[in-house]
Amino acid sequence: MSKHKPNERARPTMADVARELGVAKITVSRALSEQSTVKESTRALIRETAERMGYRLNVSARNLRQQRTRTIAVVIEMAPSHDRLMSEPYPLSLLGGIMQELTAAGQNMVLTTIDLFAAHPPSTDGVILLGQGVHDDAAAMIEATGLPYVVWGAAHGPPERIVVGSDNRDGGRLAADYLLGKQRTKLLFLGETQHGEVDDRLGGFEAALTGTGAAIVDRVACAFTVAAGREAVSKLLERGRGFDGIFAASDAIAMGAIEAVEAQGLSVPGDVSVVGFDDSPGASLFSPRLTSVRQDWATGGALLAQKVLDLVSGKRVESRAMPVELVARES
Amino acid sequence: MSKHKPNERARPTMADVARELGVAKITVSRALSEQSTVKESTRALIRETAERMGYRLNVSARNLRQQRTRTIAVVIEMAPSHDRLMSEPYPLSLLGGIMQELTAAGQNMVLTTIDLFAAHPPSTDGVILLGQGVHDDAAAMIEATGLPYVVWGAAHGPPERIVVGSDNRDGGRLAADYLLGKQRTKLLFLGETQHGEVDDRLGGFEAALTGTGAAIVDRVACAFTVAAGREAVSKLLERGRGFDGIFAASDAIAMGAIEAVEAQGLSVPGDVSVVGFDDSPGASLFSPRLTSVRQDWATGGALLAQKVLDLVSGKRVESRAMPVELVARES
DNA sequence: ATGAAAGCGCTAACAA
DNA sequence: TTGTTAGCGCTTTCAT
């Protein structure tokens, strides 16, 4: 019958299904997308025939025709790994929140690194960027694509950029209040302030300290890992203990710091009080159980997703800082 | 000049760039994909012009024309969340291994749930499925798409299905050997054996016990959470302690079990020895530090990615069970 | 080294 | 309720 193609191995297209039934392919299109303008009996027939022939929609073709992809890119700065699980600033639960929301909206999510995104841009309608990168370079790269995008992090960029993040300044304040409540006066800050969010944490911490008698006696730039925290504090302790309280920019750093303190025969919280950040899963498992500032990752992720989808559909959108909460435990 | 379109707001296409320079659009295409058949000077000119005009490749159009998407779908069974971080059978590091490998191959990754995949199939060349689902239903659904796919889990399905997973039977054996070495003889197994991987763990555990004088005295189906582990063991202990060793299908379950044991005034490992599974990040933080069977997630993820890409490019591919390792700690 | 024509598979717009 | 026509933006094929 079909003189066009001698029955190749390839999968059938709408044209094939249409020819089989003697209808126009637009009718097949309408039927399979359940449009009510097609008679229900016709729809059923087409559905069955398509099924029987093994027909599958070619998503690329539809994306091209409709000029949209129902896909959002989530761009992270580096690949996750086992030893970074707890220390990563952007954990699985942030992704979970994003995914939940995108899924509910029927949107797919392509997960990619900043490098891959630059080299092989995927086909997407919008972008969620987790972390601006040092000096905003990641955000600038995304901006250049012209796609709608939102960022997780600190609002240090241009004011028109949509940013969702925790209220890191307030997190710093909470940490300060906790340490002040423990009568700590000589405080140590551990964290890399090149990172906008960490800078905000330090800012809020300092602000809450002014006029209290307590003060920051030292600050050490420090990666988000247990090892980095341990090393930083070990070095400091070699020249004697000049502090009685620590605010660490992540729980991993805090754990490393505590290990270093205890390695000197000192006790936490006896000699030194410690506050971490993130309330990671390990915080309540660690010994001593870690006091930490909790971020609401899941809600943050959901907000990111909502906002980027709103941007895609042309709505106006605003930045948002999410409240944080101090979880007081033993440290 | 351009009489076709009165300079719309839309982004320029290759045709626009071509018209601007008075060349054919195919030349623009060739130049931008750096084909050596185009004179270098022409290439440079086209590159600059495209850049100046803000040209961006339309990936959907290319995907349609080339009949491939450079994208692999990773299908998970449910969205990750904070409280599941440690207990999930498929953690971030598995994803990390997949991502690393796909990224290196210039492939994008779309992360999706089984439901979303069914409702809105993304445009992909292949699928990595994490977990077959109960009764294989997830795998069957993927199979029906006709796309090349590989599965993480246990090789309980049809033999032609490509499966990558840990050697769970050997993991069970290692757990048995450890408990036997601690002179434990009345053993408890905690885990949901509907789950193929867990079933293999139990199988290897039982096999290693035969003819040793030790035996399984009880087994409880149990979700992958701390709470489920705690509850299962609490219930058992209400009628007295009939066991002196526990093999739990995950570290989270093991932690819950230990909490329940200690809540009765018993000690781990004094009265009861416990082996977990996964060696999750919390295992070494927990008190007592948890003995656990470690899976090599990152390598597993990398293998999954390699194999699905091989399938996509028509190569022959085989299933693979990865070695596991017992990490002996305090429990 | 460059170009012209064709068409990937789908759906919007406009008939009938 | 169904059909016709056109075209999304790109790259393959075949010419020049």
TrEMBL record, chains A, B:
Gene3D superfamilies: 3.40.50.2300, lambda repressor-like DNA-binding domains
Annotated coiled-coil segments of the chain: none
Pfam families for this protein: LacI, Peripla_BP_3
Keywords: DNA-binding, Transcription, Transcription regulation
PROSITE patterns for this protein: HTH_LACI_2
GO MF annotation, one: DNA binding
Domain HTH lacI-type: residue ranges: 12-66
Protein name: LacI family DNA-binding transcriptional regulator
Protein species of origin: Sphingopyxis soli
